[in-house]
Amino acid sequence: MAESRRRLILASLVVAMVLVGVWVATQPDDEEPGTVAAPPSSASATSTTTSLPATTRPPATTTTVDPAAIAPSDRFVTAPGASAVVGTGPRRTYVVEVEEGIPIDAAQFAAAVDATLADPRGWTAPGDVSLQRVDASQSPSFRVRLATPPTVDAHCAPLDTAGIYSCRQGADVMINLMRWVHGAAESHLTLEDYRHYVISHEVGHALGHGHAGCPSTGAVAPVMMQQTKGLDGCAPNPWPFPDS
To answer: If we measure between CA atoms, which residue out of 176, 189, 186 comes closest to residue 146?
Structure first.
């Protein structure tokens, strides 16, 4: 009898461990769930700004754009024109696109992307890479795309973006409209700074950078930290090199 009971307990523990493993394997990661091959290039990430207690966390920002009400088209409008070359070093080029049906002008979104990538606190600060937005006909190094949640999920697969995360998959930097409109309260960033963050983070993946963790309680969060999911004791930061 005792032996039968012992075998039943052992069998129950095995089943429980299998179920926990399945649950963990299906949980979504931050902006870039999972691991994908990254193109060559490098730069280190650091951070700044002041940590906000949970009671002063910026509220979710609302706009007239409702991501849930926009039907995915999986067709994209490319922002016209090009930007100046920013930085020194090997040149990486990009185009900016907005999914058809999103009521945000492609040129407007491109201006936001250009401003983030040209900022002196951005990826070009160390002088080992230069960036330029070009016309789509020039075979860009990567594309920065603003898209609806279903389209992001489709382009990011097999990464699980769960309808709410952004990602970099191959040459596509997919910015989720849900995040662009609402930001992420867990990041403690204002909407403006969150937009700088999500562009910097995902383009960082396109430049070859992986995720980073919080180095210590009270330290500034590296831009490659998954700040969308929380700060783990770090201070929020949207820039790769905030002290530059």
So the answer is: 176
Return d(Cα 233, Cα 202) in angstroms, integer.
Answer: 22
Rounded distance between C-alpha atoms, residue 16 and residue 13, angstroms: 5
Residues contacting residue 63 through CB under 8 Å, at least 6 positions apart: 181
Q: Judge contact between 98 and 76, C-beta under 8 A.
A: yes
The DSSP output letter for 219 is: S
Beta strand pairing call for 91-99 and 142-147? parallel
Residue 223 · residue 47 · CB < 8 Å = yes
**Who contacts 12 (Cβ-Cβ below 8 Å, separation ≥6)?**
none
Tokens in use for 109? 């979104």
Q: Any idea where the domains of the chain sit in the sequence?
A: 29-229
User: Which of 101, 110, 114, 113 minimizes the C-alpha distance to 79?
Assistant: 110
101-125: pLDDT as tens digits: 999 999 999 999 999 999 999 999 9
Provide the strand spans (E) within 79-224: 86-88, 91-99, 129-133, 142-147, 167-169, 172-176
Q: How far out from the chain centre does Cα 18 lie?
A: 31
DSSP bridge pairs for 132: 93
Torsion of CA 83, 204, 242, 223, to 10 degrees: 140
Distance separating alpha carbons of residues 11 and 132, to the nearest angstrom: 59
Burial class of 178 by CB neighbour count within 10 A (0 to 12, 13 to 18, 19+): buried
- CA 182 to chain CA mean position, Å: 14
The Cα–Cα gap between 134 and 86 comes to 12
pLDDT digits (tens, 9 = 90+) for 145-157: 999 999 999 999 9
